[in-house]
Amino acid sequence: MNDYRRIADLVAEDIASGRLRPGDRLPPQRAFARRRRIAPSTAGRVYAELVRRGLVVGEVGRGTFVRAAPPPSGRALAEPATAAPVNLELNYPVMDGQSELLGNALTPLLRPDVLADATRTAPAAGTPRAREAVAALLARECGGGQSGAWSPAPDRILFTGNARQAIAGALASLSRPGGRVGVESLTYPLVKEIAERLSVTLVPLASDEEGILPAALETAHRRAPLSALYVQPTLHNPTSLTTTGRRRQELADAVRHLGLPVVEDRIWSFLHTDAPPPLAAYAPERTYVVDGLSKRVAPGLTVGFLVLPMPMPMPMPMPMPVPTAVQTPVPVPVPVPASAGAPGTGSGGGHVAATLRSGGWTASRFALEAAVRWIEDGVVDRLVAAKRADAARRQRLVAEHLDGFAVRADPYGYYVWWELPPPWRADTFTAAAAERGIAVTPGSAFAVGPGAAPDAVRLGLASAPPPDLAAALRTLAEAARHG
Ligand SMILES: Cc1ncc(COP(=O)(O)O)c(C=O)c1O
């Protein structure tokens, strides 16, 4: 049995029958996973599902407990997560008429001779046409061009099944088991699971309102060397923070000084039309950009992109320095050998491509061919424009219904971070929302490392139809005010 919802049903039965009583503590997730012979990540999903159903509450540092309140109705007990009436947890936007647009662009792919090609395998570097199409898309969105902000070279692009696989591939090739990767102290939850699977420790780094503090990065690296930094500088999920241009420059200086590679996750960045250039523009020789089509288009037929750092020319031999009494150490950028061979194979690209291959993380050729058609036919640009407008509309609903609460949001973003009014705690509020048929994500899902998780929830605005979203926001505001 590997469906986490069925396992959650079994625990729910134990609670309903009294075998597990209010206040009982569930075993730690790892012990639960061992006992049920499931992966720790599946155990995590079982526990999240039980929180969602309002049956248990998780207390950071203490464990997970059966709720003292009477369990909710039988319907809630049996309901799978995907059938939650209003899902503010899953966050994939879909536009009206999207399927027609996508389908029309796919028609030429279905010709037998074209399909024969589209169903072959594809290497991690995809096809020349796919690399050109994606390079042009990213350059358009990042103000790229001859004198533009960022314009990736087509031969630096690799393809994965989705952005999560690009993150996994990048981290697997940059860090060994036992390694340490710096991240924002609140981060995309799946990065936590990916790191656990790779036996990599995530090191939370403090931020201020401009982004990660370079001093926090330097201190963490000095304590024990980091192997990489994973960041979301634009529309950070969950807080919506966009790192300022000044801080991007400071971070670029810091990673260069420390010799660290950076994984820049830009899956949500397409929404922002006036963010500073990607971190990759500030530290091109060490930044791996993660992006993909799952948010721009759809998660069920998507590809992820992993843009490799630009090769740095080998430094010219330096004249011998004249010895002086006191030598100040000068930070030296770590040189990367110039690109050679097939696309995506130079500058460490061969290693990354091999990691993607051996991890089973390369894109399917059909998805790649579909992506090429959608990009070349302008379908992606149209969906991007529609989704930007849609996100702005949904943010206006939040501004209207959650007025007066401490909500961190960006008018370009598809989520908001709601710091709950006391005495609410994130897990009990999540349970209260679930009782009202609304799935939200508690702050603990995003928190890295020990320490109290914030009493905040993330509301994903993308998936629910706007009238349902508005009703859910009204219900949640009411619950937050009156308990
Ligand atoms: C920050 C971030 N990165 C990556 C992903 C995953 O993208 P994909 O579905 O392409 O794997 C998400 C999905 O929500 C995300 O929020």
Q: What can you see in these coordinates?
A:
By secondary structure, this protein is an alpha/beta fold. α2 (29-36) packs across α3 (40-52) and α8 crosses α9. It starts with a helix and ends with a helix. The chain folds into two domains: 1-83, Orthogonal Bundle (Arc Repressor Mutant, subunit A), CATH 1.10.10.10; 99-313 and 339-379, Aspartate Aminotransferase, domain 2, CATH 3.40.640. A seven-stranded mixed β-sheet has the order 5-13-12-11-10-6-7, with helices on both faces. Strands 14-15-18-17 form a four-stranded antiparallel β-sheet, with helices on one face. Mean pLDDT is 88; it is low at 71-83 and 322-342. The protein has helices at 4-17, 29-36, 40-52, 74-78, 98-106, 112-118, 128-141, 163-174, 189-197, 214-223, 245-258, 279-282, 349-359, 365-376, 379-401, 426-435, 466-482; strands at residues 25-26, 56-59, 63-66, 86-87, 157-160, 180-184, 201-205, 207-208, 211-212, 228-231, 262-265, 287-292, 304-307, 406-408, 415-419, 438-439, 441-442, 456-460. The chain binds pyridoxal-5'-phosphate. Pyridoxal-5'-phosphate binds at residues 91, 162-164, 188, 232, 237, 265, 267, 292, 294, 299, 302, 304.
